[in-house]
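Homework help thread (please don't just give me the answer)

Our assignment gives two proteins as sequence + structure token strings and asks us to describe the second one. The first is just a warm-up. Here they are:
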Amino acid sequence: MIKPNQIIGDLPQTKTVYNNFIKMAWPSALEALLVGLVGAVDTMMVGGLGKHAIAAVGITNQPKYILLAMIFSLNVGITAVTARRKGQKNQTGANNVLRTGILLSTIISLTMSVLGYVFARPILLFAGAENSYIKDAVTYLRIIMFSIPFQSLNLTINAAQRGCGKTKISMWTNIASNLVNIVFNYLLINGIWIFPRLEVAGAAIATAMGACVAFIISTATMFRRHNYLSFYHKSIWTFRRNILNPILKVSSSAFVEQVFMRIGFFAYAAIIARLGTTSYSTHLICMNILSLSFSFGDGLSIAASALVGQNLGAKRSDLSIIYGKTGQRLAFMVSTVIFFVFMFGGEFLVSLFSNEQAIISLGASIMIIASFTTHAQTSQVVMSGCLRGAGDTAYTAVTSFISIALIRPFLTWLLCFPLGLDLYGAWIALGLDQMFRLIVSFRRFSSGKWSMISL
């Protein structure tokens, strides 16, 4: 897995490498899978209200993620720098990074929450929402905005925990959150027992309640004295240049990447929304299914990011390379299984979300296209995770700009409208985007330049 001239010290056995990787990856993969499943269950439950309800909830996704872009980028920096400090055996430094991150996350999330609530309607209209479901979409987004500060702080704490290799904390946090979400979805969407029938608003309230529960649990883990990251550890609650600079070095580039990604995803979704409610609802269902395959890639990516960062902190770039390549091999094996599931089980999966024949027929065809994107998708996510763990976020930002903000929206428009491929064109564009990102991220990883970045 590594060239002789890249070896720095003693190398572990192959079995040990895989065991270490899987030990860290499986909680993150399970967590991401559960998050994806809850998103799918959300869509299934809302789907019982009809395609307009599916569209109302789905149209809020990209605006919400744009508002959270600064939090996502901050957390990339938190994970990378915390992993370095763990590798350097600097517990105080790791705790200082987390506390600074919590302060930043609080300020950013409160600001974004207010903006999202006040400008919900114009944001959703710009996203392509139609008059038939705009009212429900505005209601959903505004309710979700109340939970953004809690969600953001939970994400920041868990980002630091992952950097230290504590992926199980995030997993259990999300399991509890998801259970609350599902239970109250069931009770509030259709009005079960003593609860009122709130339909789309009920789904939003359930999601917000789940976010609050996740925040409470993740915060509670910080009050354990024996934990590596703990509020009992003697660290500081302030903005100091020596703490901020490494975080901002990674997060600033990650923020640029997030902006490009969200603009690209926003444009992609807005173009598809203009294909009509049936096509857009089908797209949302297929994206929900595809997100379940993303979960395995996300889990591998989180493990790769933490292991790369920790070993670079310990001055073992050779082990960082080995763990990166291990992630790639596991990604290929997982993707092969997903390929066959999508290829031969696509129609059944779509039918779980809707009983409308037009959506099922179109969705079955889309899932065949999706099956051919799984290898590129999972592999590029792992490669990008390695680069982010090393702090090489400037490169991933440029890649996202070219691929997601330019190539994907342009190809989607070209294939959907001038070439008349409708929703098929959008999914072909998605596959080409994934392939491009895999090629450029693999070349960067192979160059080894990421291993020379200091934090």
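The one we have to describe:
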Amino acid sequence: MDHLKAKIREIPNFPTQGILFYDITTLLCDPQGFRDTVDALAAPYMGEDIDQVVGIESRGFILGAAVANTLGCGFVPVRKPGKLPGATHSQAYSLEYGNNALEIHQDACAGQQRILVVDDVLATGGTAKAALDLVRKAGGHVFGIAFLIELDFLGGRSELPGANVYSVLHY
């Protein structure tokens, strides 16, 4: 997977001082890199009869929708507050540079037995934990959670006990 890492740009001090941001837009604009990324994210779940992929705003939308298409299932967006019409569940969380919240439609996952959550980066685990909590609130059962990048030194995986976590790249 070194060929994928080579296409990811590192931006120091973004979005705040002291943060090293992994910019995947340089990977996504490369046709083969994007294809390889989606294939790598979807590979462990081929043949697992995933009902829906839940993508976390915003880069999780790009990756999650492509993975859903590859797996032949539906896609559900998890968004920042106030962006979804209709009744929603909300979950507050902390991330490495502040606090935020996420929302999901209340009926988004009802009765779905095999939900795969997809996002670009697992850092401290706050965003991912909030997304898992939202899927459960919406009546879904999380089969797994997949990331393009895991920042191992931040220990985010420990915030997801019992979750089936898969990451393509590790830093």
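TA reply:
I won't write it for you, but here's a hint about the kind of observation we're looking for: The chain has one domain: 49-170.
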